[in-house]
Amino acid sequence: MPRPAPLPSLILTRPATQNAAWAAQFAALGIDCIALPLIHIQFLDDATSVQRRLSALAKLDQWAAIMHVSPNAVQGFWDAQAMQLWRQLLATGANLPRLWAPGPGTAQALQAQGFALEWLDQPAADAEQFDSEALWQQVQTQISPGAQVLILRGSRAVAGTAIPAAPRQVQDEGHGRDWLARQLQQRDAQLHFLPVYRRSPPTWDAGQRDLAMGAAAARRIWLLSSSEGVQHLPQLLPGQGEAFWRAQSAIVTHPRIAQAAQRIGFGQIHASAPTVQAIALCLQGLER
Question: What is the model's pLDDT at position 41?
Fold first, then answer.
């Protein structure tokens, strides 16, 4: 009986701290991967950031909810000291916040950190998209006027300067986390934004550029999980013309990422939920 053909190989583009776990899960399914991060993550450990984080932890029993915008937000806030404080308060029966996650990756990061599933809120398993909009459908009844919500997120670094994660008045960008913040404001919640990491374009060395060009020539599939990361591709692979990008295929995990890939010029773009199982099924469909 002939063996089934191997599934197409993937280019993982998540931050370096997340790619290894994804590669291991794909390997268990027989899917070969290489890692080429499109975003660099730096956790904030300067004195000001540390003090702001400690101040937020000191109010742990006052937050109605803590929104984690990504697995990086989990890693950047919940260290051993923070987890010890959570366990101490839990033992005393103190009021503790709900832990919000916009998708399964962030929920898994919270569970890996040691949180019981009963404390987590995330989009329904059958949601069309895993994002802030789908999360709101699950958590909106938790918020009453005056509720304090802590939003853990990143800031964006450009040319050596950091762009603040969010102004005091949320900008009307019409989607995503800012959309969620507007819903909270409309419920008269008190929002507190805390940057716990900084996003910036990665720096690829010559070996990584060669790896990327070889993978592109071999028609590996780009797994794109961030619209911001997609925007870095032309700078990471400069000088590639329309024909190069038209020959590339991508799996994307959200319509906004698909739009970013379309702007770059990807020839084939396939949508998938952001889970290993869903992406593997998408790859199987590409082989038919």
Answer: 95
Identify the DSSP state of 286. Answer: H
Instruction: Kindly give the parts of the chain with pLDDT less than 70.
Output: 1-6, 158-176, 287-288
Which one-letter amino acid corresponds to residue 119?
A: W
Rounded to two decimals, what is the model's pTM?
0.86
Say how many C-beta atoms besides its own lie within 10 A of residue 108's C-beta: 17
244, two tokens: 């190069």
Q: According to the model, what pLDDT value does residue 6 have?
A: 64
Q: What is the pLDDT of residue 126?
A: 83
Long-range own/partner contacts, residues 125-133 (CB < 8 A, 24 or more apart): 129/254, 129/255, 130/102, 130/103, 130/104, 130/253, 130/254, 130/273, 130/274, 131/102, 131/103, 131/176, 131/254, 132/102, 132/176, 132/177, 132/179, 132/180, 133/175, 133/179, 133/180
123, burial (CB in 10 Å: exposed 0-12, middle 13-18, buried 19+): buried
How far CA 267 is from CA of 221, 248, 252, 256, in Å, comes to: 11, 6, 13, 16
Structure token digits, residue 215: 């993978």
Segment (H or E) for 222: strand 221-224
**H-helix or E-strand containing 183?**
helix 176-186
Give pLDDT, residue 169.
36
Question: Could you give the count of Cα atoms lying within 13 Å of 233 in the half-sphere of its Cβ?
Answer: 31
Dihedral of CA 146/149/154/160: which sign? positive
- Which tokens in the block code for residue 63? 């937050």
List, in sequence order, every residue forming a beta bridge with 192; answer none if it has no partner.
150
The string of pLDDT tens digits covering residues 26-63 is 999 999 999 999 999 999 999 999 999 999 999 999 99
